[in-house]
Structures are given as C-alpha cells and as structure tokens.
Amino acid sequence: MNLRQLEAFRAVMEIGTVSQAAEMMRISQPAVSKLIAALEHDVGFSLFDRAKGRLVPTPEGEMLFTEVERAFVSTALIARAAENIRDRKQGHLNIGAMPALTLGFLQEVVARFLRDRPNVLVSLHSRSSLEVVNAVAGRQMDMGITMAAIDNPGVDTEFLCRAELVCAIPPNHRLADRDVIEPRDLEDEPFISLTSLDRTRQRIDHPMEEAGVRRNVMIETPMSYSACAFVAKGIGVSIVDPFSAHDFHSAPIVLKPFRPKVETDIALRFPFRRRRSMLIEEFIALLRAYIAERTDLPVRLHA
Hints:
The chain is α/β, with parallel strands linked by helices. It has three domains: 3-86, Arc Repressor Mutant, subunit A (Orthogonal Bundle); 90-161 and 265-300, 3-Layer(aba) Sandwich (D-Maltodextrin-Binding Protein, domain 2); 166-261, Periplasmic binding protein-like II (D-Maltodextrin-Binding Protein, domain 2, 3-Layer(aba) Sandwich). The chain is built from eleven helices and 13 strands. It has helices at residues 3-15, 18-25, 29-43, 59-86, 99-102, 105-114, 129-137, 199-211, 224-232, 242-246, 278-293; strands spanning 48-51, 54-57, 90-97, 119-126, 143-147, 155-164, 166-169, 190-194, 216-221, 238-240, 254-257, 263-271, 299-300.
C-alpha cells in the first residue's frame, strides 16, 4: 500500500468515476484502474463492485474510505502547520531579559512581533542578567537579553547595543533646568541608588568617588524602573538606564545627560552552538530595527 494508491482510491470515492479521477490526478484512466487494483490486492478485499460500467463502493470500501479521509485530514493539518512554521506564523519563543527591558521596552517589541503572528506564543521572563544567562546556558530559554559583562561558556553572545545612563530628576528640582548633570551637582543630594551588588551601581559610583562627591543615599533598589518611580514621587534623583527612564515619559520626571558618560553594553544570549529558528531570527531583526528607530534613546547599535 502506498500514498499514490490511496490518492486514487480517494479521488474515485469523491468524484465517482475513474475517468474524472484520472483527470483530477492528471494521469491516464488505465493508470487509476491499475492503482485501485493494486490497492485491493494489498488490502485483501474488494473496494468497489462494478455495476453497469460504474464503480460502487463495497461496505469494506466505505469503511476504508473513512480511515483514509482521517489520514488525509491529518496530512492537511500537518501541511498547514508546516506552512505556518515556514512563514514564521506558528511557534513558541521563550525569552528572558533583565527587568530594565521587560517592564516596557520589550513589551512594545513583542506586541509588534505578534501583530501578524496570531499563532505564535511568546513567553517573556523578567530575571536578573545572571539568572537569564544561566537559564539560556541550561537551554531553559531560547534567548536572553542581558548585561554584556556576564560570561558563561554555555552561551553564544552577540552584541546588541551600548546604552548611556541618564540622570532622572523631579520636574520641580533645582537641577531640572541644567543641560547636563555632573557629579559635583549631586553633592549631598537625596539619591535613589541601585543595590551595591549591581554592576551598573559600580559604574555609577566610580565617577562620584573620583570627584570626591558624597550623595545622600535615601533608597536602594534592585531595578532602575523602581528608582524612576521614586524620582516621580519627588523623593530624590537617580542615575538609571535609558530604557527604564523612557518608559516614564508621561510621568513627572525629567531626564538629563550625565557626564562623564556611564555606558553599559547589552548583549543577546543563545544556547551554545544551537541553531536559531527562523522565528528567533525575525524577532532579533525586529528588535534591532526598533532600537534603531528610537532616536529618543541614548543608545548606539555599535560598540
């Protein structure tokens, strides 16, 4: 028994004559008859009775046709699924990213990505950069977006962008009219800081220490997003990543460049030597395009 025999049998059952089945299959009438005869030989029973030049299905033929239809429906579903996979309209992306990106920025990217892909599922996990890198290395995530400074031999790393940190200030603050904020401007200022274990905190502290500036640290928080929320409440000022800061564009905060520049590299992470799906490649392309069009962000796409 082979697929071509089943196709001939199905065609005759649906159309009713060998000649029309042959026309539909684009083969000769004798070829269809030969395929039917071969199928009957393989299954061991008659599929049709020949009456007055017409083929009438036998009860066994009717029962076999029911099973053949199920098989062809399943084949059609598989073909449709393959088409959706080929066109990147079906699949599952499991993405991890540091909170600075997942709380606003990546939500917009994912929304754009899913706009024309209703059958794609995206799982977006907000974790620390270290947790994301470890999860990607363990193949628990398809890709990650993290601080580039973290290394792990179990991941492939690809540079995404270099982001310049900004100073977040309440709108009625004495520094709100400054074009640029420098370390000496923050002497004794109420300050919302990242936690001492955060690598970005270490980058922020370095120019302060070099300038001999003492800040009045009021709050420590593990996320720039939280720091921006405290700034919006007028508790103090902060230096934060631009992604978190620009998610607060409608909140009562003012963003200013900070000098000397404090920059951080952001990287894409993938399981080591694992081939990326077409769906992942399209998501990466959209992510890069979105970053490029955000001219309001102090972000560069090259190191």
